[in-house]
Amino acid sequence: MIVHRTIFFITVHKNLWKKAAKTLLRVLIGLIVIVVSIPFLLYVPFIQDFARRIAVEKISESTGMSVDVSYLRLKFPLNLQVDSLSVVEASGDTMVSAGSAEVRVALWPLFMKEIQVNAVSLKDAFYRLGTPDSAMYMTIDGRNLKLNKADVALASMDINLEEGVISGGKVRMLLNPDTTQVNKTDSTAEPTKM
After folding, report:
1. What span, in angstroms and rounded, lies between the C-alpha atoms of 43 and 79?
2. Measured between alpha carbons, how far is 121 from 129 in angstroms, rounded to an integer?
3. d(CA 151, CA 140)
4. 3-state secondary structure of 72
5. Torsion angle, alpha carbons of 149, 56, 111, 147, to 10
6. Which residues contact 119 (CB under 8 A, 6 or more apart)?
7. Contact, 120 vs 103, CB < 8 A?
8. Which of 87, 17, 77 is nearest to 42 (CA)?
9. How far apart (Å, rounded) are the C-alpha atoms in residues 71 and 48?
10. Which residues pair with 145 in a beta bridge?
């Protein structure tokens, strides 16, 4: 009788371990599938719309600017299409606007902390930097703007632009005398990059 109970206990114990191992394996496989599928969910249109609304809200809150993007689509791997983009400063001045924009970004350089843009195409674009009373005031207004081969080193924020074309528009730049007081005791001035 004792031998029979021991065999029954060992059999039940083995079955319990098998069930626990199967359940644990299923949970681990499920977690791996979820983690792997999250990046691919970014390509689902209704998730992109949800992410666009959240991103626009957070950017507007953190910068104090009014940001509006009516349409945004991310296509594999990193091709971005945006329609009706506008960024309006708190003062009410438009900083950036575009009827449509397409950006193709290379994926692999992102892992090396660099953004490599293969092409940018903007239609009905406007960009304004500064104000007319600033040391530098620049506006770019164009029907079509195209940039080819640009990269940004994220660590140093160095921007390299190989080629840019503006058609049906104009660039205005105003350089005013710099009237800011220079601190003579500070010898660690940052170099100006352009």
Report:
1. 11
2. 20
3. 20
4. strand
5. 0
6. 102, 103, 104, 146, 147, 148, 149
7. yes
8. 77
9. 9
10. 122, 166
Q: Tens digit of pLDDT per residue, the chain (194 long)?
A: 454 555 555 555 667 777 888 899 999 999 999 888 888 888 899 999 999 999 999 999 999 999 999 999 999 889 999 999 999 988 888 899 999 999 999 989 888 889 999 999 999 999 998 888 888 889 999 999 898 888 888 888 888 888 888 899 888 988 888 777 766 665 555 655 55
Beta-ladder partners of 17: none
Question: What phi, psi does 32 have (nearest 5°)?
Answer: -65, -40
| Pair of tokens at residue 25 | 């394996």
Q: Cβ(56)–Cβ(65) under 8 Å?
A: no
d(CA 138, CA 176): 11
Peptide bond into 177 cis (omega under 30): no
- pTM of the predicted structure, to 2 decimals: 0.67
- H/E run at residue 67: strand 66-75
